[in-house]
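If you are new to this repository, start here. Below is one unmodified record pulled from the training split, so you can see the exact layout before writing a loader.
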Amino acid sequence: MALTIREIENAKPAGKPYKLADGGSLCLLVATSGAKLWRWRYRFDGKEKMMAFGEYPAVSLKEARDLHFSARKTLAAGTDPMAERKSEAEAKQKETEEQRRQAENSFEKIGRKWWAWWSVGKSPRHVDTVMRRLEADVFPLIGHKFIDAITAAEIRDLILPIEARGARDVAKRAHETIGQIFRYAIANGMAKRNPAADFK
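And here is the target side for that same chain:
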């Protein structure tokens, strides 16, 4: 017989943990602490396993049934639901780590590190001019991008409008500065190649 919300709400802790069955081996484990935990007992490869679906009320009765239904489908297809969940969690963590790495290695972040390193011993006026040009012409267009994802075509598309407004020397310097940032990134293991070197 299926569980009702009233039964779940009325379930009180006892001297030892006990289970309230919902059907299809899905049950609510009521711990001595009063915690109400969704559990599903199943067999895979001849071994008995117990899968957790979270705690009530954070995971509602409907959500627990949906998770249970999905896990049973996975099992019916010949896959261990817990093993699949673990591999999905690992893939998600890997993806998150990769996104974090890309954010840390954005062109702007590396460009500012290069500028701090390069500016030592230079005249304050020249140093400020270089940063102002980066902030005006370069960072707004490619600053947010992962440095290894930037192409030579994107750098060209950034430089041509500078040239078109009659600032040929500024365009040339922007190209040189971008190349310097890439060389700094390569030397420090933050980039693999310098697409600015693909054209003059």
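Two things worth knowing about this chain: The beta strands are 18-23, 26-30, 36-44, 47-56. Residues 26 and 65 are 8 Å apart (CA to CA).
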